[in-house]
Fold this protein.
Amino acid sequence: MAALVGSGDDDSDRAVTAGPAVDRVIPNPGDEVLQQQRVGVVLDARYRLSSMVILPSGNATEGVDVTSEVEHMEGLNRFEFAPGAGRLIEALSPDTNCVIARFVLIARPEESDTVRWCFEVA
């Protein structure tokens, strides 16, 4: 499976992949983005997203589960959440934000893994 890590520290903008499930995360670990930035993950076609939680800081232990508002672009197997008025998160919190996405192998849904990454919000 795969894991990406970014804690917001200066030397933690590295992405470590341990398998084929995650093609890309949005935004990239360590990126500096605006409060309305879309947040998401692109998975290999054999996987599907089961949950996405956005944490308002790098040290937060609880976040906002935005799974119900995630858009799926099927041909790309891209899963994205867009902050906005009337949504679970109207704007990303300033400073460090982290995302935890859980995904499953479609052929074996009892097997799940997670990817976590962090980025900065201006």
